[in-house]
Write a structure and sequence with these properties.
This protein has 25 helices and eleven strands. With 647 residues, the chain is an alpha/beta fold.
Length: 647
């Protein structure tokens, strides 16, 4: 047999075995869905509703708080080796029937057979998609539309797409653990249930912004080394599902992805393997004209710009207005007033962006009847934009979570504030010694010791270990801290038996208030329900800390009451409990109090209300535990301009 015939035979045998393996894997996957217990199906349905409640308004904000959509088109980018199978050459955002009903797209008549994004994604195998494109091309919009379509058309037992901003991913954390924490923190799922959903592969990760994980070079070009992005790609290529690569969706800018591929690292650190990569194409001038025409309410004022775009579809302005981001900027800036024809003189992208962004905040505040002055909005968003971009000591933060904004001031300032507050609290603790007999020596020594601890915290260069993640009343449950709960119960029972006070009613009250009451209260927060708003997260943190402080105060008062009178017990126990629990164990609430004190005058008094108003106006959008800037270009422009320019 000739060498070529033997090679063909080997390829045929290998192909048959590989196809048989794939068929068996698909059968296993089908049986997995058939055997999915009812509780996992119910959990995934609840998670799908939660994701839709967050991402549907976020998608609407990206569209300019309007129902008009641009039918984005994308093409397959050929990858050398291990691409996804069954990938079509091109696709579109919307189904053909939706395009015919909603707009007069120039692509409708040219290529009506192109699949929509849901059909495109579900037809490739494995379900791994990379959405790439230049800045403002609509990558996040395309990913959000795909997420909402997957939720709308999902069958019982299908995975639920969950979006995660990659800029906040510590790549030392495995992807599975990252998904569990996302469900636990953002959607308020108990850790055990979140782990089961992830282990059963009922969560489809949608990873947004691979290019935002590493700082660009000084000139603004992507960093070809990009250690965090390469570590993320290595982790994504490692994940499997039933011996098949794990399904996922990834968004990244074209130039950043190309820079990663030019490196000398292994393939698993240079690109996403076993995936189909699509690149979003520019919006044609007829589609841009159709979009602006439908967004305009006073078309007479827009007539000059419309005539210019219709007469010069290949001109400089038409090429600049070929991204959804710039089209949305133009539609928003000139929605109520102004002459759109002044854009005809803008022929450079950077000058056009600066021109539009300088007018964007005043236009948005006027459209939404905002109570804030546009100049104040700009000044308040400036430090938040610098923090989100990573101009401080902690790197970039895609999500502005209220309980994590304490990182904006210098770290030493937060430490000193906590230490000085602790010293002041325990100094006040010594005041009752002046009126309570037989307590001067004990309280004096306690006050001196605690003041020393506070000064040590204020002057030390290392932060004490403290949990800064948000807490709810569930964190007071004994099963959340099984070791500490066991030690507490054992110590209380041993002390009671040793001192022959087991039947004392005051110890019974102390045990009930300190242990049983939190158990009963946490039953109200046993199952995930509606999505928690960012402002509610910090409120729950303060409520959890306040309730814990009250319980400690009651237990301490009952304990101290065996030696002192009720009034003296309150004077002794309450200040000590408040200082000890709130200041030392306050966690995120204590850090947030320090942040608001140190940033007074820089940010509005009601910061949460301001961020909600900015989200409603379209300057920000909901993301994870907090807020995200609507677009990276807007964030960078605000970070570079401390004062609003003269428009």
């Amino acid at each position: 047999m000739a060498e070529e015939d033997r090679a063909d035979a080997r390829n045929t045998v290998y192909g048959d075995v590989r196809d048989s393996t794939l068929i068996q894997a698909q059968r296993v996957d089908v049986h997995h869905h058939e055997a999915t217990p009812h509780r996992w199906t119910a959990w995934s349905d609840t998670l799908a509703r939660q994701v839709r409640d967050i991402e549907e308004p976020a998608c609407r904000r990206l569209l300019g708080d309007d129902h008009m959509r641009i039918d984005l088109r994308y093409g397959l980018v050929e990858e050398a080796g291990r691409p996804a199978r069954n990938a079509r050459e091109a696709g579109r955002l919307l189904p053909s029937d939706s395009v015919a009903e909603s707009s007069e797209s120039s692509w409708s008549s040219e290529s009506p057979e192109l699949p929509d994004i849901w059909t495109y994604f579900t037809s490739i195998s494995p379900h791994r998609l990379v959405i790439s494109g230049p800045a403002g091309s609509g990558k996040t919009v395309l990913a959000l539309e795909l997420m909402l379509a997957l939720i709308e058309k999902r069958a019982p037992g299908d995975p639920v797409p969950v979006r995660i901003p990659l800029a906040d991913w510590d790549t030392r954390t495995p992807l599975d653990k990252l998904l569990v924490e996302q469900l636990r923190q953002v959607y308020d799922w108990p850790r055990c249930r979140a782990r089961q959903l992830v282990e059963r592969r009922l969560v489809l990760p949608v990873l947004d912004g691979l290019d935002e994980m590493d700082e660009p070079l000084r000139g603004g070009n992507p960093n070809p080394n990009a250690p965090r992005a390469r570590a993320a790609l290595a982790e994504l290529n490692r994940m499997q599902r039933y011996r098949e690569p794990m399904p996922l969706i990834l968004t990244v800018r074209d130039d950043a992805y190309a820079a990663l591929k030019r490196g000398q690292q292994p393939d698993r650190q240079r690109r996403l393997l076993d995936a189909a990569r699509v690149a979003i194409e520019p919006v044609p001038a007829p589609d841009a004209l159709t979009y602006l025409t439908r967004r305009a309410t006073d078309r007479t004022r827009w007539r000059s710009l419309f005539d210019h775009l219709a007469a010069r579809p290949d001109g400089p302005l038409a090429r600049l207005l070929s991204t959804p981001w710039r089209l949305c900027l133009v539609a928003t800036v000139y929605a109520a007033k102004g002459d759109p024809s002044e854009l005809v003189r803008r022929r450079r992208a950077r000058k056009l962006d600066a021109f539009l962004l300088a007018r964007y905040i005043p236009a948005v505040t006027a459209l939404h009847g905002d109570q804030y002055d546009p100049a104040d909005v700009h000044r308040w968003l400036h430090p938040l934009a610098r923090h989100a971009r990573g101009d401080g000591d902690y790197g970039p933060h895609a999500v502005l979570a209220l309980h994590e904004l304490w990182r904006m001031p210098p770290d030493v300032a937060v430490r000193r504030f906590r230490g000085l507050l602790l010293s002041l609290g325990y100094f006040i603790l010594g005041i009752p010694a002046l009126v309570i007999p037989d307590s001067l020596g004990t309280l004096t020594m306690l006050g001196i010791a605690m003041c020393g601890i506070g000064l040590f915290i204020a002057l030390s260069k290392r932060e004490l270990r403290n949990d800064s993640s948000p807490r709810t009343l569930r964190h007071l449950s004994p099963w959340h801290h099984p070791f500490h709960f066991t030690a507490l119960v054992t110590g209380m029972v041993s002390l009671a038996l040793t001192t022959s006070m087991l039947a004392d009613i005051r110890w019974a009250v102390s045990l009930t208030c300190g242990v049983l009451l939190p158990i009963m209260l946490t039953q109200l927060f046993h199952s995930p329900a509606d999505v928690v708003a960012p402002r509610q997260i910090i409120r729950q943190e303060f409520a959890s800390t306040a309730l814990g402080t009250v319980l400690v105060c009651v237990a301490s008062t009952v304990t101290v009451g065996r030696r002192y009178s009720l009034l003296d017990s309150v004077l002794l126990a309450v200040p000590a409990s408040v200082c000890g629990y709130f200041i030392v164990l306050g966690g995120a609430s204590m850090r947030y109090l320090a942040f608001r004190t140190l940033t007074r005058g820089t940010l509005p008094v009601r910061l949460g209300a301001f961020l909600d108003r900015s989200t409603g106006a379209g300057l920000l959008r909901r993301g994870g535990l907090g807020y995200e800037f609507r677009h990276r270009e807007l964030r960078d422009w605000l970070a570079d301009h401390a004062e609003p320019p003269n428009s």
